[in-house]
Each structure stands twice: as C-alpha cells, then as structure tokens.
Amino acid sequence: METATENPDIKCYYCICSQFILAITPGLDVLPRRNAQVSEDKSIVISRKRDQCVFSLDAYRDKYPLLVTNKNKEEVWWVYKCPRCKLPIGYDLENSSQQYTFILNGALHEEPSEDQVTNKES
C-alpha cells in the first residue's frame, strides 16, 4: 500500500496546531471554492463523489449543527473541528445530502507549524 510520502499526488494538510487533518488527491489548490453569491466564506469544495476526489479527513464533527447567516440566507452547518485544538476546519451542509464537504478558507496548511514541531522535539 502506498503512503502519502510515496505518492506525490496525495497532498497532506495540517491544522495550525500541526495536527494532521487531511490527505487528499487532488490538492486543495485546484479544487473549486464556494460561489461568493451563495456564501461569503470562500470555502474550498470537496466532492464526495469518488471519481472526482479521494480524501481522508481526520477531524471530529460536532454533535449539534450551527445556524449560520450569510447574505440574508441561513444555512445549517455541521462543523468539523481539529481533534487537538478544537478549531473549526470545515463543515457539511444539512441540505447537501453529504455530496460535499467544505474546508474553511485558511484553516489548513501543507506544512505543520514550525513552532509546534520545535516544541514537540524539545
């Protein structure tokens, strides 16, 4: 079985606390963002259809939904959070029938935080 380090097409992403969160192909940089007319958050859209995107998300989903108001429109978000620091990193929409997962703009990084890596080694 190939690992992410053996397959350069698999991109790994980390929370700002350096917790591994996401392995995905293709990378987030080539995926679409939510339409600004629909939502102001500019989240990255991950399709759950296997032929379009393969990913593994290591985050927990809140037990209760969050009601978010965007441009006079209400959405129900089921928020995913980092298992270590509990920061929100993404969400599912209640009405999306689990076809898409959204990653919040700026929530994930390709490299672990240098400060956190240094602190672990100390």
TrEMBL record:
Residues 7-114 form the STEEP1 domain. One of its GO terms (biological process) is endoplasmic reticulum to Golgi vesicle-mediated transport. InterPro entries: STEEP-like, STEEP1_dom. GO terms for cellular component: cytoplasm. Belongs to the STEEP1 family. This is STEEP1 domain-containing protein. It comes from Magnusiomyces paraingens.
